[in-house]
Design a protein that fits this description.
Layout: H1 8-17, H2 22-33, H3 48-57, E1 64-70, E2 77-82, E3 88-96, E4 99-103, E5 107-109, E6 124-127, H4 130-144, E7 150-153, H5 163-174, E8 186-190, H6 194-203, E9 208-212, H7 218-224, H8 233-247, E10 252-257, H9 265-277, E11 281-286, H10 300-312, E12 317-319, H11 333-343
Parallel strand pairs: 4-7, 7-8, 8-9, 9-10, 10-11, 11-12
Antiparallel strand pairs: 1-2, 2-3, 3-4, 5-6
Helix pairs in contact: 1-2, 4-5, 6-8
């Protein structure tokens, strides 16, 4: 059994069935989720026999650092870590004035096929467990010795394609018995799985939903994102509107600016109409070119002109601050490079 994915109540029930008192469950839970113990042996207020018994009974998820790249520009760190089955996942640690952020992966690989993303090039392998998502944060905190206050689930994978594990991860991360990170400090990115967006709205969590919009018409979106062949833009936007209505949390529209593809005057006008109708915040992302695709980023002047047009029409807009530009900062780049270097 994967002990780090259990809630405190579940752990108490599990220990009770084994004849252990509830306070032992509290101790173990705190070691895992507050003190961030790397293994059972670190749980020094448990007897040696009990630690051995736990080791024999439960799976204890702990990531193994394979590689870490640190940006000379801003101190951003990109981690490549090995799971217990040998699969690799990426996570990113970013320092901001308002606190430290970690961007985590939710799957090994991705099946969504978005054409500007390196994560999807080698396909989908499996979903991550709640413990494996948590451990990306815990491992970084152990490595840096610094507290994390913001978490974005925007790394490799589509979080809502791993729905049950993702929701459990959020509840564990925000629980007062664990790291107790505020739900308002968690952002989840989705390419637009309509049924799951509506289901997430009914959870009444206070997390921020970020829609990977990237185009303002079905035709352009289909060229960039295969999911657009399943759900129309109208369906996706109505689901986002439902999320806002149910939670009161404003949706963020992620918009990767691809030079000459979705950065025209008409694109800006259509984006203004969408953001105004759904009271959304627009986060412009200058596309990070990958060698397997021929997408190019526009000039800084073109990107600023696009932003200014939105602002002049009353849209709340930011340009995503580029972190780790001198390392394999974009989703899937480091993992793909390491995998293919090993294969050569």
């Amino acid at each position: 059994m994967d002990i780090k994915s259990l809630t405190l109540d579940e752990l108490k029930d599990e220990f009770k069935a084994c004849g252990l008192p509830p306070f032992r469950a509290v101790q173990v839970y705190q070691w895992m989720h507050q003190k961030l113990a790397a293994d059972f042996e670190e749980m020094t207020n448990l007897s040696k026999d009990m630690r051995q018994s736990l080791k024999n009974t439960y799976e204890y998820t702990c990531l193994k650092k394979v590689q870490m790249q640190e940006s000379a520009l801003d101190g951003t760190r990109k981690y490549l870590s090995a799971l217990s089955d040998g699969n690799l996942v990426e996570s990113v640690f970013m320092r901001y004035k308002h606190g430290n952020s970690v961007c985590i992966s939710s799957q090994v690989g991705c099946k969504m096929g978005c054409r500007f993303c390196a994560s999807t090039l080698d396909g989908w392998i499996r979903n991550l467990l709640p413990s494996e998502m948590l451990e990306q944060i815990y491992a970084i905190m152990r490595d840096t010795g610094e507290r994390v206050s913001n978490v974005v689930v925007m790394g490799t994978g589509e979080p809502l394609d791993n729905y049950e594990n993702f929701v459990r991860f959020v509840k564990l991360l925000t629980n007062e018995d664990g790291l107790h990170i505020s739900q308002r400090n968690i952002t989840v990115s989705t390419c637009g799985l309509v049924p799951q967006i509506r289901r997430l709205a009914q959870e009444k969590l206070q997390i921020t939903l970020a829609l990977s919009l990237h185009a303002t018409t079905d035709e352009k979106r289909k060229a960039l994102m295969p999911i657009a062949n399943t759900y129309t833009l109208k369906e996706v936007l109505e689901a986002c509107g439902y999320y806002y209505k149910q939670t009161g949390r404003r949706v963020t529209f992620e918009y990767s600016l691809v030079g000459g593809v979705n950065d025209t005057k008409e694109d800006a006008e259509e984006l203004i109409a969408i953001a105004a109708k759904y009271a959304g915040h627009v986060n412009l992302i200058p596309v990070n070119p990958i060698k397997e695709r021929d997408f190019k980023r526009g000039s800084r002047q073109e990107i600023l002109a696009f932003k200014n047009k939105l602002e002049k029409n009353g849209i709340n807009v930011t340009i995503r601050r580029e972190m780790g530009r001198d390392i394999d900062g974009a989703c899937g780049q480091l993992r793909r490079r390491v995998l293919h270097n090993d294969a050569e």
